[in-house]
Design a protein that fits this description.
Helices cover 44% and strands 16% of the residues. The chain is an alpha/beta fold and 347 residues long. The strands form four sheets. The protein has a seven-stranded parallel β-sheet, with helices on both faces. Bound molecules: nicotinamide-adenine-dinucleotide and thymidine-5'-diphospho-beta-D-xylose. Thymidine-5'-diphospho-beta-D-xylose binds next to helix 6 and strand 8.
Length: 347
Amino acid sequence: MKNILVTGAAGFIGSAFARYMVKKYPHYNIIVYDKLTYAGNLNNLSEIDDEGNYRFERGDIAARDVVRGILQKYDIDTIVNFAAESHVDRSILNPDAFIHTDVVGVYILLDEGRKHGIERFLQVSTDEVYGDVETGYSTEDDRFLPNSPYAASKAGGELMVRAYHVTHGMNTVITRGSNTFGPYQYPEKLLPLFITEAIDNRPLPLYGDGMQVRDWLYVDDHVTGIDVALHHGVAGEAYNIAGENEQHNIDVIKAMLKLLGKPETLIKHVPDREGHDRRYAMNCDKLRALGWQRQYDFPQALALTVQWYQDNEWWWREIKTGEYLEYFKRQYADRLAAADQDQPNNH
Ligand code: NAD
Ligand code: TDX
């Protein structure tokens, strides 16, 4: 492993991985390849701009010729693919881009990677491929029951990775992370959306009863999990990366509001997300057996995250303009209006 192409690393988790890899492994060259969609942001990578073992190239993972050119230009031997459309609500509004990137894009990366003679291909996937888990914990051999277009597109990408391993003997590894949070997360996801809205004393649109369960994983722990799977994972295998920290959404938000010193009256129960999964929960013994260990506990990681958004308004205020506001209106205007009618005193 020497020249690593990290795709989608201008986004939230990929940029954390690139910042970590550039510093931890000075003898690796880290080439970030990213389309810079609404979710891609070069500010996320500015910390490593001046590092000699880091390069950035802009492009689409589904653009075959461009991908081929980059693999040749940098003599790439390893691909770590973070590139994805990643937000469930957007996949309900418009799934096209999800099929383009999460399915076709993964296929193009695999196909060009194979022709180029890639030695290792790591696909970053998600716990959402298992679908709703009412009881117990998903293990890596459980069947896929994706419920949102996003989850189905990620499952489709994964199946193509499996096929390239079985059919062509490609050296592939898949990781399935749980709900990740931390600095530089685009403010459409639950925590960064609610932290930044709460800072501005705006209503927090909690879907349904807020009793859905997610397993919260701090971004730096997700990154070390991927590092361990990349270096030690067995070819053809998948590894769950869990936070082992199940929480009801409403409790996460109450804890966040307490840290910010803001009132719980900001919470508004709004009409639910369509097809909303009630619970995700995974077992991650398989990755632990490779030597991975979480470093953060939830209260500590939540406090770090809240503090980061308080300290870095420059980062998120620039994002919350233009296209973002159009998306926000489309996703929330009717929901918040409906909540106003139901809960008139809950301002
Ligand atoms: P993100 O939306 O913050 O970033 C996605 C990045 O991919 C952006 O920089 C974007 O510009 C880039 N991108 C999108 N389409 C592209 C294309 N066609 N070609 C090249 N680049 C493209 O996402 P994230 O939250 O950092 O998630 C990263 C990966 O981790 C995704 O594959 C996601 O499915 C997976 N994942 C996320 C979570 C989570 O909680 N956020 C949990 C588990 C797994
Ligand atoms: O406005 C909101 N109100 C609300 O109640 C938003 C944005 C979310 N929610 C709820 C829905 C979920 O139960 O909060 C929970 C978390 O929502 P998201 O942050 O949208 O995450 P989720 O749908 O659980 O998916 C996340 O985890 C798995 C990531 O977005 C995916 O990329 C990852 O694969």
